[in-house]
Amino acid sequence: MTLPPPNAGDDRARVLRAMILMSAAVSLYPLGDAIAKHLTQTYPVVFVTWARYLFNFLIMAAVLGGPRVVRHYRTAQPRLQVARGVLAALSTMSFIAALHSITLVDAYALLFANPLIIVALSVPLLGERVGLHRWSAVLFGFAGVLIVLRPGGEFFQWGSLFALFSAFSVALINIMTRRLSATDAPMTILLYMATVGTLVLSLAVPFHWAEPTWDAWVLLFLAGLVGGLGHLGAIMAIRMAPLSAVAPFSYVQIVTAVILGYVVFRELPDQWAVTGMAVIIGAGLYLLRRERAGR
Question: Quick check: pTM over 0.85?
C-alpha cells in the first residue's frame, strides 16, 4: 500500500483526486440507507431492496440511451461481473435488514470494518504490499469493531451480524471492482450490478410484495438515484488509484450517518459506539498517514 514515487507527480495528483472522489461518493450512501431504514418500518426488507435496485437500473438505462444500453454490457469478465452483482444484492439486502433492527450509526460503525478487511485482503487477492505498521492498524481497527459489537451485550444480535456480513461483502465487492476496472468501464460495472441485482431480487420479491404509496415510490426512486451516484463515484475512484489508498476514505460517511441518524430518527451513538468508531477511525487515519509517508 504505497503512493507513487516522488517523481510521479501526475500519479500523486490522480491518487489525491481519487481520495476526494471516494469521500464525496460514500457521503451519499447514508442518505439512501436512511430512506431504506424509514421504509422498512412499513415495507418488507426484500421489497425495499428490490425497488431500490429497480430504480437504479431504470435510471441507468435512461442515462445510457435506452435501447443503446446493450452495448454497455460488453465485458471481458462476465462471470466476475455476475458474481459481483449477486454479492452486491445480498450485501445491500443484509445491510438494510441490519438498519431495520439497529440504529443507523451503529450499523455504519460495523460497516466501517470493510476498509480494514480490504487492506487485509488486498495482499493475497491484489498483490499489494502492506507493511507491519499497516497490519497493526488493521488489528487495532478490528478491536474497535469489537467495542462497537460488545459481544455478550444486548447489542450482539441479528442486526449486528447482518451489518458485519455486509462489511465483509463490501470489501470483496471493492476488490472485485479493482479487478474489473482493469478491463471494463465504470458504467459497465455499475450497469451489471444494477441488472444482476434487480434480476436476483425479482425472484424473491413476489413472496414479499407490498403496495407502496406514491410518496413511498418517490422515496424509493431517490434511494436508487443516490445509491447509483455513490457507486459510480466509488468505482471511478477505485479505478483511478490503488484500492488500499482510497479505502480509508470511506470513513467520511460517518458524518452524514450521524447527522441523518439524529435529524431523521432522533438516534445518537452511545458511549460504546463512539469509542469503537474513534478506534476504527483512528486506525484508518493511521493508514492514511502511512500512505502519505509512502511506507
Answer: no
H or E stretch at 202? helix 186-204
- Does residue 277 contact residue 261 with C-beta atoms inside 8 Å? no
The closest alpha carbon to 258, from 267, 271, 245, belongs to: 267
Residue ranges per structural domain of the chain: 11-293
Number of H helices, E strands in the chain: 13, 0
| Cβ-proximal residues to 129 (8 Å cutoff; 6+ apart), any chain | 1, 2, 123
Contact criterion met (CB below 8 Å) for 197 and 67: no
Distance CA 172, CA 135 (A): 18
- Torsion angle (degrees, nearest 10) of CA 287, 289, 294, 295: -60
pLDDT at residue 60, as a whole number = 84
Amino acid in position 137: A
| Tens digit of each residue's pLDDT (9 = 90 or more) over 96-142 | 999 998 889 888 888 877 777 877 887 777 677 777 777 888 888 88
Tell me phi and psi for residue 8, to 5 degrees: -100, 70
261-265 contacts, C-beta under 8 A, 24 or more apart: 261/34, 261/103, 261/104, 261/105, 264/34, 264/38, 265/34, 265/37, 265/38, 265/103, 265/104
Residue among 36, 59, 97 nearest 257 (CA) = 36
Taking Cα atoms as reference points, which of 192, 209, 196 lies closest to residue 46?
A: 209
Q: 179 vs 16, 249, 295, CA distance in Å?
A: 21, 20, 24
Q: Amino acid letter at 110?
A: L
For the stretch 236-252, pLDDT in tens is 888 888 866 787 787 78
Distance, CA of 150 to CA of 200 (rounded, Å): 34
Residues 228/56, Cβ–Cβ less than 8 Å: yes
Residue from 89, 93, 105 nearest 40 by CA: 93
